[in-house]
Design goal:
- Belongs to the sugar phosphate cyclases superfamily. Dehydroquinate synthase family.
- By secondary structure, the protein is α/β, with parallel strands linked by helices.
- The protein contains 14 helices and 11 strands.
- It folds into 2 domains: 167 residues, Rossmann fold; 184 residues, Dehydroquinate synthase-like - alpha domain (Dehydroquinate synthase-like, alpha domain, Up-down Bundle), CATH 1.20.1090.
- It has a 7-stranded mixed β-sheet with strand order 1-2-9-6-5-3-4, with helices on both faces. Strands 7-8 form a two-stranded antiparallel ribbon. Strands 10-11 form a two-stranded antiparallel sheet.
- Helix 7 packs across helix 8 and helix 10 packs across helix 11.
- It binds nicotinamide-adenine-dinucleotide, the ligand O=C(O)C(=O)C[C@@H](O)[C@H](O)[C@H](O)COP(=O)(O)O and zinc ion.
- The site of ligand LNCXM5UN has 10 residues, from loops.
Amino acid sequence: MTNDLAVELGEKSYPITFPADATVAIRERLAATVAGGRSSVLLTDDGVARAQSKFLADAFGATPRLILSAGERTKSLESLGKVLDFLAANRVNRQGVLWVVGGGVMGDLGGFSAASYLRGIQYVQIPTTLLAMVDSSVGGKTGINLTAGKNLVGAFHHPGAVFIGREFLQTLPPREFAAGMAEIIKYGLLGDQELFGQLEARPVDVRSAELPAVIRRCCQLKAEIVKADEFERAAEGGRALLNLGHTFGHAIEQVTGYTTYLHGEGVAIGLVAAARLSHKLGLLAPADIERVERTVAAHNLPIRLRGPLPLAELQNATTRDKKNRAGGVRFVVMNSLGQAATRSGVAPSTVEAVWREVGAV
Ligand SMILES: NC(=O)c1ccc[n+]([C@@H]2O[C@H](COP(=O)([O-])OP(=O)(O)OC[C@H]3O[C@@H](n4cnc5c(N)ncnc54)[C@H](O)[C@@H]3O)[C@@H](O)[C@H]2O)c1
Ligand SMILES: O=C(O)C(=O)C[C@@H](O)[C@H](O)[C@H](O)COP(=O)(O)O
Ligand SMILES: [Zn+2]
């Protein structure tokens, strides 16, 4: 299909397809897998199992399935054990395929399970949240959280294919849709001025005619960035730019125990914080901060903490960030709205001032 994209990584390359009917496309791929003698099992969460029961029945029939509790706290060592035991109980061998249906939690957990089981089996990403469609299903970052911090254990392990079925968004709760918009705004701010301008001029919602093109554009941007710096090793810039807003966002998620803020909500506040930091570093004007805040708020996302959080804990959480180098915490800042860069050596007092501006105490 001409609309399709590819993440080009040599023999690890894989397609991102946008089928007209996801049920049909996935059923066909599953049938081909089974016909090739490869076993297939399915991982999803109970929210998806409820909301998309017809799709799961029509596409997967009697495929063995593991249904875990929905939510960020499922991205844990305990859940990893459950998925690995499930794979072993179903005697999945190295030719087997794990079909992962759900949001970023299922994608990250399922992907990491696939990376570690038998030292690596194939998995297929079937994202059902907006966030997973535009971000987590693409790029092969998989993992789980530790009490000590977000995504601290994981692997780079790419899926065999990504199927993006926009019909899944019809059952997605509005708060979850908004969370996905945070990552979309992120793409605009980090590398696509035109996309940011479009979101600023007219907020996108689930009924917007431009939504399919916006989803595809984000996948394209991510595929290009991942192709250029698969393992986030570039000395500056590179894949780390996809972390815009995340040093702040992950700290908010961790300090609140992964229960209060959705990932996308943490990122939304993180984008505002990154804009404020960029202003303090002389890169953005006050008017740019206002433009970021207005666009984030127009997509039903928070621009400040909903209640005060302790500054010391937030600062401490940022010291665990995986982008950090020997010299200390590394941030992603904006040189302009649409062009991001990595930046080390930011004075802790500057970061503290930003935290206070978004509501830390
Ligand atoms: N690997 C990456 O590159 C990457 C990128 C971005 C985010 N992430 C991770 O993704 C996670 C967040 O993912 P998320 O925002 O998709 O959240 P999620 O996976 O927790 O899903 C959100 C909620 O929506 C429900 N849901 C999913 N699809 C639905 C549908 N179609 N209809 C009704 N309900 C549905 C789920 O049951 C769940 O309750 C975080 O852990 C984040 O760290 C990873
Ligand atoms: O794919 C990437 O690279 C990203 O940074 C995308 C982020 O949206 C995502 O939240 C990712 O999981 C964060 O990665 P981490 O390395 O900071 O854990
Ligand atoms: Zn993210």
